[in-house]
Design brief:
Layout: H1 5-58, H2 64-74, E1 80-86, E2 92-97, E3 110-115, E4 122-127, H3 130-183, H4 196-230, H5 240-252, E5 258-266, H6 269-276, H7 278-296, E6 301-306, E7 309-315, H8 320-333, E8 338-340, E9 343-345, E10 349-355, H9 363-386
Antiparallel strand pairs: 1-2, 1-4, 3-4, 5-7, 5-10, 6-7, 8-9
Helix pairs in contact: 1-2, 1-3, 3-4, 6-7, 7-8
Length: 398
């Protein structure tokens, strides 16, 4: 069974107080009993001495009636249960009280004797343990009651203090850790005391702050890596991985299904690479990517498929008119020469356009259809170059 720290602390404190109270009670009881025993011995001894002197002054000890009356005075003391007069050998002279018992037949704990002046006799009184036993019981009960009250009050006071001084900070620590676990945000623990618990709280605050900073740095690094994984390193456009992720968004309904796709290929790109070098080819690709994005607009998805191929996806209600307008803007954007490693080139493109039908069409199908249209545009361009008499479409768009 799980016990709270309060229960454990209270049980430990109660046990310690009980042990301390028990030891203190034993010491107090021994001191009280020793004091009571000394007081009893002094009192009884004084009484026995006085009666012995009185017997010597009043009459001869052999006067049994007078002696017995005087001995009976001792029995008013609750500690004395018998009294007798004996000679030097210890033999009873014949005077004793109570008459039917005598000290030798009574439950005597100890005897106190006093000599009778001017005689060879002594007065002996038998003392019982009843009075000391009663004192012992009273002391034990008093100590037990005071110990119980001390344990109860001290435990309650310690519980209140412990709950305020230790329990409340621990509750704040647990709340802060739970909040950090749920949200990942640090909730500062406030605690003014400069002690070991304050050091623990300072360490937890510092740890959570560091973890929060590390988590933020890790998120930034993950975002950067994710962005790098989704971005073409040369043109800074989305790459095939980004296109696949966008396709997943189409399938999940996070984005409306695409209604049109344009597949774009740079004409004679291999010749540019072979003739002017790869640096010039890279410049052509970078300029092409920038002009395509500018013509399409920042809200339109433009990606590089690889090599010299690019794709544009149009969402929403894009129709043929919108696609033709976009194709026209692209053609006009590439009428201006571009600088490829110091060489001014006018780059031509082949653009294939595909529109979604009445039935819903996924992105891969649209891109495949646009790819076929793009190759058809290339084929027509080759036929036009082979037979200059044939008039080809000026926009090369299908």
């Amino acid at each position: 069974m799980r016990r709270s720290i309060y229960t454990k602390f209270v049980l430990a404190l109660a046990g310690a107080l009980l042990l301390a109270t028990t030891l203190g009670g034993v010491i107090i009881a021994q001191q009280r009993l020793a004091s009571a025993r000394a007081e009893q011995a002094a009192r009884v001894g004084g009484q026995v001495g006085r009666i012995a002197s009185t017997i010597a002054e009043a009459s001869r000890p052999e006067d049994a009636q007078v002696a017995r009356r005087l001995l009976s005075l001792l029995l008013f003391d609750p500690a004395i249960i018998c009294a007798e007069i004996v000679d030097r050998t210890g033999a009873i002279v014949g005077v004793r009280a109570p008459a039917r018992l005598g000290c030798r037949g009574a439950a005597v704990q100890e005897t106190i004797a006093a000599p009778i002046p001017d005689t060879g006799l002594e007065l002996r009184a038998g003392v019982s343990s009843g009075e000391l036993d009663q004192i012992r019981r009273e002391v034990i009960w008093s100590v037990a009651l005071l110990g119980a009250l001390a344990v109860v009050y001290a435990t309650l006071a310690a519980y209140v203090v412990f709950r305020r001084v230790v329990g409340a900070p621990i509750a704040n620590i647990l709340e802060s850790i739970a909040h950090f676990t749920r949200t990942g945000a640090h909730k500062t623990i406030t605690f003014a005391a400069h002690d070991e618990l304050g050091d623990v709280i300072d360490a937890i605050n510092a740890m959570q702050t560091r973890l929060e900073q590390d988590a933020a740095a890790l998120r930034d690094a993950n975002d950067f890596l994710r962005q790098m994984a989704m971005t073409d390193a040369l043109t800074a456009l989305p790459n095939r991985a980004a296109l696949a992720a966008r396709g997943a968004q189409y399938c999940s309904g996070a984005l409306p299904s695409p209604t049109a796709a344009l597949l774009i290929d740079v004409d004679s790109f291999k010749e540019i690479n072979d003739r002017l070098g790869h640096a010039a080819g890279d410049d052509v690709l970078r300029h092409t990517a920038q002009r395509l994005q500018d013509a399409a607009g920042a809200a339109v998805f433009v990606a590089r498929l690889g090599g010299d191929e690019f794709v544009i996806l149009l969402d929403g209600h894009a129709g043929r008119t919108m696609c033709m307008e976009l194709t026209g803007r692209i053609e006009r954007a590439f009428l201006k020469p571009m600088n490829a490693s110091g060489n001014m080139l006018v780059v031509r493109l082949s653009v294939g356009m595909a529109l979604a039908g009445e039935a819903e069409t996924d992105a891969e199908t649209l891109i495949a259809a646009a790819d076929e249209k793009m190759y058809e545009v290339k084929r027509r361009a080759r036929e036009a170059r082979a037979n200059p008499q044939v008039h080809s479409e000026s926009g090369r768009a299908a």
